[in-house]
Amino acid sequence: MQRFVLYGWSRLIFWSLVVGIISCQSPESTEEPRKISIPLPETSQKISAKTEPKIPQNDFSSAYRLEDLLAYAYESNPGILAARAKWESVLEKYPQVTTLPNPKLDYQYFYVPGAQRNMFVLSQMIPFPTKLYYDGEMVKEEVRIAHYEFEFKVKEVAVEIARTYYELCYLTQAIQLTQQNQKLLEEFKKLSQEQYNLKKAILLDVLKGEQQVAQLSYDLITLDEKKLSEEAKLNSLLNRDTQIQWGIPQMLEPKETHFSLKELQSISMQHEQELQRLDHQIKKSEYQVLRAKQNYFPDIELQLQYETRGSRFDSPFENRPENGEDSGIGISVELPIWVGKYKAEIREAQKLLQQDQLLKQEKQQSLKEQITRRYYLYENAIRLVKLYRNILIPQAKQAMDIAENLYRDAKGEHTDYLETQLVWFNFNLAYQRSLTEQWIHLIEIENLIGIRLEVTHAK
Question: Which of 125, 140, 181, 354 is the most exposed, fewest CB within 10 Å of its CB?
Fold first, then answer.
């Protein structure tokens, strides 16, 4: 009876260990998968989408803002959503690389005439602890890398949307200026016709006015087609139907930032997302070198054995010498004898680390050069904006008014007015183009340094 009780307890302990190990390895189906809590850097240029963006769908008269477009794109652009999905998928790698391998349960049955044996072996492979640690640290760096790649994609899409928005601002102003200029020429054409009827002008003056009006009509068609093209591009970035038309964007104002070239380059070294991604890539490579060195340390395998034996037909209650059970614990150790292989893995990891460090140096130099080029383009655009706004356009408007008054009083030539009017029109277009280029260069600088810059009204 005592032997039967021991037999029962041995089986109970063995199967309890089996169930315990399996339950520790298998996730419960009623709970959400756990995610490792890894501290991540805050987004340097975060676009909030907590409030519903106010985007016109088919209301052609509605004005729209760049901020609304960015908020809409944050939740709808396929590239941004794909980068976010990649980041979230990398989060799930941590429990995979830091969890022990599945345990194994072996069963063997032996039969000889008149006797039988049943053997159960439960084994668990346990890697050297530092291997799991460095595998986990590498995944943490991968999570941070994926986060910066997500940030970089958000910034890339935001820059493309901003550039398209500024182009639409320019085209809207160009269309309005062309329509305004066309209206002035229509009025002047009527004046030329009246002067011709009074024998104060020649037919050539009337024909020149008609030619100018016809040219502006063609320019309006071209500008409208360009506007439709930019709207289709904007719809594509927002994952909308490319045929949806837009209303009127907010008019750009001359604003500027007051950072020196040296300050901008210094900011970029600290905040640019690609550099930060490379920093974490270097950390990952450093962990990879340390992980490769852990291959010299052996893994171990723990075993729990349980065996029953006895006559095939005898009852376990009978106390026969050939009946009974045995249990035992075993351990096996891996022998890392292939030193050449491990040395090669270490050298490979070291070369990858060196590669990442050189890529960071290359990126830093390239970043400084791009910031320098954009900075001078931005400064030149500011000078042009001030030149056209403060000097050239007022002078051209004054010259056009004088030429018109002289022509009305029959003291000036028809061509004088047309020339001054064309100069005034071209200066206004050039002003809008320079203002647009100023904002485009500013958004490109912000893209290169990784943060938004404060701007003030230009004097």
Answer: 354
Structure tokens at 402: 């004088």
Residues in the chain: 459
Tokens found for residue 353? 């680390």
Structure tokens that stand for 361 in this block: 């140096």
d(CA 225, CA 229): 6
Residue 306: both structure tokens together: 């349980």
- Strand 115-126 and strand 104-112: the pairing is antiparallel
Consecutive H or E run containing 354: helix 339-387
Q: What gap in Å lies between CA 177 and CA 171, rounded to an integer?
A: 10
Q: Which 3 state secondary structure label does DSSP give 75?
A: helix
165: left (phi over 0), alpha (psi -120 to 50) or beta: alpha
- Report CA 252 to chain centroid distance, whole Å: 26
Which tens digits make up the pLDDT trace of 198-230?
Answer: 665 556 665 666 777 778 888 899 999 999 999
Q: What is the pLDDT of residue 265?
A: 93
Where do we find the tokens 């891996």? Answer: 334
**Residue 14 contacts residue 304 (beta carbons within 8 Å):** yes
Range of lowest pLDDT (24-33, 175-184, 302-311, 417-426): 24-33
Question: pTM value?
Answer: 0.77
Given a cut of 60, whether residue 59 has pLDDT beyond it is no
Q: Which two tokens stand for residue 331?
A: 């351990």
